[in-house]
């Protein structure tokens, strides 16, 4: 890889260009090259100012994340920032694309920052379970004050050029194409003015007031407690920003470094970094390279305007792609379109969209009651009721209507895609596009590759996912595909433990303590027991609850009783029903005791199912399974997904525990052959990725 810094001197200005594709991450070789270029420019009497600029698509995207966890190589990023702090001549950063993390920190250590109009700056380290470790937590508050700094650093949000200018984080905005020339002109003015060089590290004006507001930090922590729960980074960021306010710059920096070292060694950060790379890895399909041409998708058709069809449609509207939306009745069509509009208007009312944008998106919908309206579509997605008969009928009709070269996709969540494809004369054009509900929000898209699906069709689906803001994970054909199949055993075990007498509150609390947003039974109550329990044949607790009118949160009662603030409380009636159903099914009273034991019962079968999915080749790699769980089921990102977590627990321990559980609870706990092989070989899932 080309990792260089080069410089030319013109008119007394040293123009140092960093070039480390694809995103100019500050790897050790690049840091070394930058250090020597700076050193040379500092010593060169012909040089009166220095400009830092990047080649390629962006300014520096931050530290090189692949180096974390390895021994640090000199110079470190803080060393480079210290070098800039001591620079004998003005240094100007010229920023295009994004200046993120260590990249923005380096820019903040320069005297001036000139940004392209489309550029963004930010400190996204929190998303990797880290804090900015090269002065970001010390410099940003000195510019914007503690309150705004807390928001910027704990959210990791990207700040647009205009906002950055108004906050004082940058000094000037240039037109995109003329960034270099405008920044050079800026540098020349600086030299000509001979003005005192502004140093953020010496400023205290913005934090003066914060010294007398000690509550600021505790209030911020309390207000955001829910959002920060389980993540160690936000707390550390708050501490570091407080240090910026209370200590002098060098002591604050030392505090920041100590906190950074703690975070980088934490399992949470390791998990979040795993997820960062796993998300990008998921896009790669071994037998499909860049030479496989994707099909241009300019017009989409969606069949079914229900909850899924509507959500799916919104993804394409958001990306500016027109959608023909087909339903069987005018009423269903009107209802579906009204729901889409209501969703957009809700977004607009929160100020996250303009009224004009709402109208632009709505105008991209062409409603129709005829499948024939899909004749021109490049991609048709079927999102109707989960019935093989209904779906094969639709695909057979679609086969006669769709133009040659159109991709025919099903949003089925568990039916056999190959059977659906067999209803057409062109199974190679059929693919599964499994969205997760709410489809306009959840970032996972399972791309299901059937036995006949052609490579360009898979390539198109994978690339299209990125275009509509989704992360695609490739799945083979099986019941439930990756995410649903993976998580199903968790629900089965929760319900089995319930019948054995483990309190549902304990089961839910263990899941919430692990990091899920809610427990299994709270989730059932939220979705609605009448919706989930529709097909039950034998007597179940859920069926009895429905019969008693306890349909879930919407009725104020389901597994739990809900108060007016929708907080769950244990219900005596539910407890009685559970005992009755257990007695009727002859389930012996043998509650699982202890959080660790409950967690093992709930999650080891998930790990086991993951091993099977991997071994059967349904998923390409272990990290894809983690991504499916994190993005499809909100598996806590700081646990890294089920297989990353299993590696942390130790596969040997999991196999041993499962063998014990198998003796008690049967086959579900028989360790999958792959799990056993990895454990016996002292290996981890991560070693296979
Ligand atoms: N280090 C190493 N590799 C990185 C990287 C980084 N900081 N940022 C991106 N990459 C890699 C990606 O893994 C990807 O590699 P592959 O092509 O091999 O998959 C490649 O660069 C392109 O990345 P994207 O696919 O994400 O490209 P994009 O155009 O969609 O997004 C981006 C570009 C906005 C910069 C995005 O990559 C991103 O958000 N990167 C991470 C930024 C970040 O978190 N920086 C902080 C680093 S931590 C730090 O700096 C700590 C400190 O203070 C000392």
Automatic annotation (TrEMBL):
<keyword id="KW-0442">Lipid degradation</keyword>
<dbReference type="GO" id="GO:0004300">
    <property type="term" value="F:enoyl-CoA hydratase activity"/>
</dbReference>
<dbReference type="InterPro" id="IPR006176">
    <property type="entry name" value="3-OHacyl-CoA_DH_NAD-bd"/>
</dbReference>
<keyword id="KW-0413">Isomerase</keyword>
<keyword id="KW-0456">Lyase</keyword>
<dbReference type="GO" id="GO:0016853">
    <property type="term" value="F:isomerase activity"/>
</dbReference>
<protein>
    <submittedName>
        <fullName>3-hydroxyacyl-CoA dehydrogenase</fullName>
    </submittedName>
</protein>
<keyword id="KW-0560">Oxidoreductase</keyword>
<keyword id="KW-0443">Lipid metabolism</keyword>
<dbReference type="Pfam" id="PF00725">
    <property type="entry name" value="3HCDH"/>
</dbReference>
<feature type="domain" description="3-hydroxyacyl-CoA dehydrogenase C-terminal">
    <location>
        <begin position="598"/>
        <end position="683"/>
    </location>
</feature>
<keyword id="KW-0520">NAD</keyword>
<comment type="similarity">
    <text>Belongs to the enoyl-CoA hydratase/isomerase family.</text>
</comment>
<dbReference type="InterPro" id="IPR018376">
    <property type="entry name" value="Enoyl-CoA_hyd/isom_CS"/>
</dbReference>
<dbReference type="InterPro" id="IPR036291">
    <property type="entry name" value="NAD(P)-bd_dom_sf"/>
</dbReference>
<feature type="domain" description="3-hydroxyacyl-CoA dehydrogenase NAD binding">
    <location>
        <begin position="300"/>
        <end position="474"/>
    </location>
</feature>
<keyword id="KW-0276">Fatty acid metabolism</keyword>
<comment type="subunit">
    <text>Monomer.</text>
</comment>
<dbReference type="Pfam" id="PF02737">
    <property type="entry name" value="3HCDH_N"/>
</dbReference>
<keyword id="KW-0511">Multifunctional enzyme</keyword>
<dbReference type="Pfam" id="PF00378">
    <property type="entry name" value="ECH_1"/>
</dbReference>
<dbReference type="InterPro" id="IPR001753">
    <property type="entry name" value="Enoyl-CoA_hydra/iso"/>
</dbReference>
<dbReference type="GO" id="GO:0006635">
    <property type="term" value="P:fatty acid beta-oxidation"/>
</dbReference>
<keyword id="KW-0576">Peroxisome</keyword>
<dbReference type="GO" id="GO:0003857">
    <property type="term" value="F:(3S)-3-hydroxyacyl-CoA dehydrogenase (NAD+) activity"/>
</dbReference>
<comment type="similarity">
    <text>In the N-terminal section; belongs to the enoyl-CoA hydratase/isomerase family.</text>
</comment>
<comment type="pathway">
    <text>Lipid metabolism; fatty acid beta-oxidation.</text>
</comment>
<dbReference type="InterPro" id="IPR008927">
    <property type="entry name" value="6-PGluconate_DH-like_C_sf"/>
</dbReference>
<dbReference type="GO" id="GO:0070403">
    <property type="term" value="F:NAD+ binding"/>
</dbReference>
<feature type="domain" description="3-hydroxyacyl-CoA dehydrogenase C-terminal">
    <location>
        <begin position="480"/>
        <end position="562"/>
    </location>
</feature>
<dbReference type="InterPro" id="IPR006108">
    <property type="entry name" value="3HC_DH_C"/>
</dbReference>
<dbReference type="InterPro" id="IPR029045">
    <property type="entry name" value="ClpP/crotonase-like_dom_sf"/>
</dbReference>
